[in-house]
């Protein structure tokens, strides 16, 4: 049993520690710098910025079709290099088409987000997509230190340029410009590493590689696209149904609570995905115990954080941010249930790709998108942002737990087969 439950070792352990260190440093920089900047810029500018970030997050997923997941499970170096070059081109084309589509829709409907902000979102979204493609390639070859360095570069230069643009009196868009500069510079750093991986694109080989992993197209792409939309649609809908200030409050409340998820879950998730892909062939029966251990650790850590944040931290935060941000603690309380439930699933969520149960995440994300729309409409009709967030936190949290139940049930089946 000791051998079955042994902790990540050698490169895997170093990978977790390297990514965790990079994410920790980056998040400390982003959060501490972001709090100071939030006080300077105020809720309205923060609302515009959070809307921008939501578009970026959605675009960075949609433009690559999440095909970079193939890197981790593919055995062919030639196919990986070809797909890498293909995705850089594909993401550029899709980003351009998205912007044209938004321009067309804006001519028909009033979408309440200016074309200029959407254009900036497309620029940042494209570079973020390129970063995602490259970090997936680094994950394949266990270049975790490079991923960590890029994350830190992004954080330092984003905050630095955001402060510079504030001094230059760009009060509405300074946060956005700073983020774009940081993202571009981190992308340049990654390209300095991956430049030897470029190859002329063979679309026939790319198609063959994709078809060999068709479940990613059938389930992972729509599932992760829906997940990106669901997790970021809330800010966009709040800006539509309520005020920019409300979007700013929600964005900062969510950011404060999501930080530990980013620090713990994302770092663990990348390495767990790589390790589980290697275990599935000969040691699939060990995945249940390993997953359970990861979940318990993550939930316990997040639970402690939430208690400290809601009873102590949030009131210190409101004092730091100033009177404009009074009442932020109410939103953090409401969203805590959602965060705790996410903490149980996030570190192992990509295992559905390994065990070929991508449809679990697909069905869940359909549910999550519907919940987002429904709760925003209900809250919007009642002109009550807290009602929207309360309903969303409860029903979204329950959804995460239901998906976790089915994932663990499948892993338990693998364990029983291996006995």
From TrEMBL:
What is the official name of this protein in its record?
Answer: Membrane protein involved in the export of O-antigen and teichoic acid
User: Do you know which InterPro entries this protein is assigned to?
Assistant: Poly_Biosynth_Transport
Task: Report any Pfam family annotated for this entry.
Answer: Polysacc_synt_3
Residue intervals passing through the bilayer: 20-41, 47-67, 79-103, 109-130, 151-168, 174-193, 294-321, 327-348, 360-381, 387-407
Lineage, highest ranks first: Bacteria, Pseudomonadati, Bacteroidota, Flavobacteriia, Flavobacteriales
Q: Which GO terms describe its cellular component?
A: plasma membrane
Its membrane topology, per UniProt?
Multi-pass membrane protein
Organism of derivation:
Chishuiella changwenlii
Keywords from UniProt, A to Z, are: Cell membrane, Membrane, Transmembrane, Transmembrane helix
């Amino acid at each position: 049993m000791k051998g079955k439950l042994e902790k990540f070792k050698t490169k895997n352990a170093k990978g977790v520690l390297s990514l965790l260190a990079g994410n920790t440093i980056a998040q400390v920089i982003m959060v501490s710098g972001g709090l100071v900047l939030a006080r300077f810029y105020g809720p309205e500018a923060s609302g515009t910025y959070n809307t921008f970030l939501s578009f970026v997050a959605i675009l960075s997923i949609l433009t690559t079709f999440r095909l970079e997941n193939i890197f981790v499970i593919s055995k062919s170096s030639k196919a990986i290099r070809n797909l890498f070059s293909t995705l850089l081109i594909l993401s550029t084309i899709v980003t351009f088409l998205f912007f044209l589509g938004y321009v067309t829709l804006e001519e028909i409907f009033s979408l309440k987000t200016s074309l200029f902000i959407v254009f900036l979102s497309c620029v940042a979204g494209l570079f973020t997509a390129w970063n995602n493609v490259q970090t997936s390639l680094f994950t394949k070859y266990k270049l975790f230190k490079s991923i960590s360095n890029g994350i830190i570069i992004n954080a330092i230069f984003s905050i630095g340029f955001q402060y510079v643009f504030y001094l230059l009196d760009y009060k509405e868009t300074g946060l956005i410009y700073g983020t774009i500069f940081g993202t571009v510079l981190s992308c340049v750093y990654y390209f300095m590493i991956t430049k030897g991986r470029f190859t002329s694109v063979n679309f026939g080989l790319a198609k063959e590689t994709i078809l060999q992993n068709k479940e990613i197209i059938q389930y992972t792409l729509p599932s992760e696209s829906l997940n990106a939309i669901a997790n970021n649609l809330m800010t966009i809908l709040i800006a539509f149904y309520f005020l920019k200030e409300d979007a700013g409050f929600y964005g900062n409340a969510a950011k404060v609570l999501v930080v530990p998820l980013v620090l713990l879950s994302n770092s663990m998730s990348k390495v767990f995905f790589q390790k589980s892909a290697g275990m599935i062939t000969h040691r699939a029966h060990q995945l249940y115990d390993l997953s359970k251990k990861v979940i318990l650790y993550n939930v316990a850590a997040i639970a402690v954080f939430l208690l400290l944040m809601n009873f102590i931290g949030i009131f210190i935060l409101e004092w730091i941010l100033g009177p404009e941000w009074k009442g932020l603690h109410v939103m953090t309380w409401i969203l805590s249930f959602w965060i705790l439930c996410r903490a149980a699933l996030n570190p192992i969520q990509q295992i559905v790709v390994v065990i070929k149960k991508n449809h679990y995440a697909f069905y869940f994300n359909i549910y999550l998108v519907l919940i987002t729309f429904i709760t925003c409409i209900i809250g919007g009709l009642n002109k009550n942002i807290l009602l929207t967030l309360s309903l969303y936190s409860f029903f979204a949290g329950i959804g995460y737990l239901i998906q976790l139940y089915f994932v663990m049930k499948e892993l338990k089946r693998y364990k029983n087969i291996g006995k």
